[in-house]
TrEMBL record:
Protein's name in the database: Release factor glutamine methyltransferase
InterPro entries associated with the record: HemK-like, N5-glutamine_MTase, PrmC_N, RF_methyltr_PrmC, SAM-dependent_MTases_sf
Domain Release factor glutamine methyltransferase N-terminal: start-end pairs: 6-73
Originating organism: Candidatus Magasanikbacteria bacterium GW2011_GWA2_42_32
Gene Ontology terms describing biological process: methylation
SUPFAM superfamilies: S-adenosyl-L-methionine-dependent methyltransferases
UniProt KW keywords: Methyltransferase, S-adenosyl-L-methionine, Transferase
Superkingdom of origin: Bacteria
MF GO annotations: protein methyltransferase activity
Length: 298
């Protein structure tokens, strides 16, 4: 069998099941034969082995049962970096780049002012948020090392899921970013930790499960872990818990970044007002001009 026949066969089997059948077939085919997509166009006559065809067949079948492409090729791009993903972690979304961007701005400003910084990413999943932040901060400070500036960022990341932490550790190693990964229920276990009451500026990032029961019915998310998506009746169960933990911990100085669903804007602001009165709150919009990020200054 040639690339072209496998390609046509894959497309034929997917066209009624996927709205992106053509692209899906290309991506799966090039993944299985371990060649860039351009190779498919320039060498359609090349033969593929029976083993490769069997593998393509398996992946096309899974795709037709709505398995996301990212799981089928075990990778997802995020903020220009490549992350290993599997069914135990949420597939990183483009809208989550906003939390990374805003946290980077804050960390750079704090470091310019020679403050020590501790970043804790809660619900880290694939580790995409702290790894990307670490990577960008690291390259920023190594490129300005001629001016004598040195990054003083310490990174921790938590998740309740052990399999997710395993993937996150792998990604951190791959991108050579030093992160302490901990299995925790949100900030639980940090209650009396000196980390939170040190002289350092504390930055917390969290993209916690925030979908409602109704949103959970969406077809495209069925293969992703429920534990990564479902945020209780109004989607704010975990954020409420986290705000209550922060109220108990009372860190000396902290900036907290929370990704939300745009519809939660008002409700989360009133929760913050109730649980953490007197804190400064700002809402940022994503590229689609939707309220996506809450920034709390404690
Ligand atoms: C929406 S996913 C986000 C993953 C990743 N941060 C991202 O942006 O792609 C939420 C993550 O929170 C984790 N999680 C759920 N409940 C948690 C809890 N109580 N404590 C810590 N992590 C939790 C899930 O396992 C999942 O990895």
């Amino acid at each position: 069998m040639t690339i072209q026949t496998a390609w046509q066969w894959g497309y034929k089997n997917l066209q009624k099941k996927s709205t992106s059948a053509s692209l899906d077939t290309e991506v799966l085919l090039s993944f299985v034969i371990k060649k860039p997509k351009e190779f498919l166009y320039t060498h359609p006559e090349k033969k593929i082995t029976a083993r490769q065809f069997k593998k393509i067949n398996q992946k096309i079948k899974l795709r037709s049962k709505n398995w996301p492409i990212a799981y089928l090729i075990s990778r997802q791009g995020f903020y220009g970096l490549d992350f290993l993903v599997d069914k135990n972690v949420l597939i990183p979304r483009p809208e989550t780049e906003l939390i990374v961007e805003e946290a980077i701005k804050t960390i750079k400003a704090a470091e310019e002012n020679k403050q020590k910084i501790i970043l804790i990413d809660i619900g880290t999943g694939s580790g995409c948020i702290p790894i990307t932040i670490g990577k960008k901060i690291h390259s920023h400070f190594s490129s300005s090392s001629a001016s004598g500036k040195k990054s003083v960022l310490k990174i921790l990341a938590t998740d309740i899921s052990s399999p997710a932490l395993k993937i996150a550790r792998h990604n951190a190693q791959k991108h050579k970013i030093k992160i302490q990964f901990l299995k925790r229920n949100l900030l639980g276990g940090f209650l009396n930790s000196p980390i939170l009451n040190s002289q350092s500026t504390l930055i917390i990032t969290a993209n916690l499960p925030y979908l409602t029961a109704k949103q959970m019915r969406e077809k495209t998310i069925q293969k992703e872990p429920r534990q990564a998506l479902f945020g209780g009746k109004d989607g704010l169960y975990y954020y409420q818990q986290l705000l209550e933990q922060l109220n108990k911990i009372k860190p000396a100085q902290a900036i907290v970044f929370l990704e939300i669903d745009p519809a939660q804007n008002k409700k989360i602001q009133s929760l913050i007002k109730k649980i953490l009165p007197g804190t400064q709150v700002e809402i940022k919009k994503d590229l689609a001009k939707k309220d996506r990020l809450v920034i709390i200054k404690i």
